[in-house]
Every structure is written in C-alpha cells, then in structure tokens.
C-alpha cells in the first residue's frame, strides 16, 4: 500500500510502510487521524515534561518517538535512505549537532529575535529531514518548544486554522516559504511565522 501524499510531503517507501503498527490503515486520511491522535499524546507528554535541555540529540529523537511511536516502529530513529528532501542520511547526526549548537548560540547571544530563531531552527530541521516521515510536524513542535524553553515566548500559529497536512492555501504558503529558505531567502518564512 502506498499513500497519496500532499505536495511537499515525504513519500514513504515500502520498507518504511512495513513499520506501520496498524495493518488496517489503507488511506492517507486514516493515517493522518492515527498520527494526530499520537501527536496529541506527545503534546500531553511535553506538557508534563519538567526541565532538561531540548537542544540535544536525545531530546530530538525522544520527541519524535513520543509524537509517532504509537503508529510507526521506526519512530525516533534517523532515516537510513535518501528521500526527495533532506541531506545524506550519513550526515544527519553531524548536521543535527551543528543545528542544535547553533540554536543554543543564537539564544545565548541574542543573535535573532525569538520568532526568527524558531523559524530558522524549523527550516534547518526540515532541511536535514532526520526521520523517514513526520519531519514537518516534528520540526514545528520542536521550534515551539525552543521558543518556550529558551525565549519564554508563545508558540507560532503554524496552521492559522488550516490543516497543514492537507492541501490548503496555508500549506501552499508554508511549502513556498520553506523552498525560498532552501534557496537562502528567509523573508517568506519570517512573514509566515509572524516575525515581520
């Protein structure tokens, strides 16, 4: 079974689909519902979390596992295959470490305003694309946790009433902003997150 993906989504390969814990799922809509229920549980876990540095490899993996671990066997495990987006899988750990160190530096040295720091963090996390799937949702939540823990700032209104998983005007704007940032222009992404 191969799910029809919205524009900008990472397709799952057959081996990754084998990691689905529920064999009865046959449509993208069913999968989205199942993942959203797991994400809700993950957000509850985040709400109960007490301290600990979020800018660590361990936290990045644990967050992904909490968000998707009830759905996918491989949740919290870095991808091993090339995708339509993302860096070489063998560079994930190194580039993620660079991102986490950069984000810590930005916060400690007031390099960027909070929303810009979160937008840049989010973009680079998506650009690295550490996991087989769920990277956008994971990166948005991780950026919000960064805002809370390092800047004492409210979360970003990523969806603004729309479903970023489904094709919508907001998703088109989001994907366009990420693609522009890939080319070195962060203006659309900063507008998208409300930083300008």
TrEMBL record:
Alphabetical list of Gene3D superfamilies matching this protein: Fido-like domain
- Transmembrane stretches in the record are none
InterPro entries attached to this UniProt entry: Fido, Fido-like_dom_sf, Fido_containing, Mobile_mystery_prot_B
Question: What sequence ranges are listed for the domain Fido?
Answer: 55-195
Concerning PANTHER family, the annotation shows: CELL FILAMENTATION PROTEIN, FIDO DOMAIN-CONTAINING PROTEIN DDB_G0283145
Q: What is this protein's record name?
A: Mobile mystery protein B
**UniProt source species:** Ruegeria spongiae
Q: What is the lineage of its organism?
A: Bacteria, Pseudomonadati, Pseudomonadota, Alphaproteobacteria, Rhodobacterales
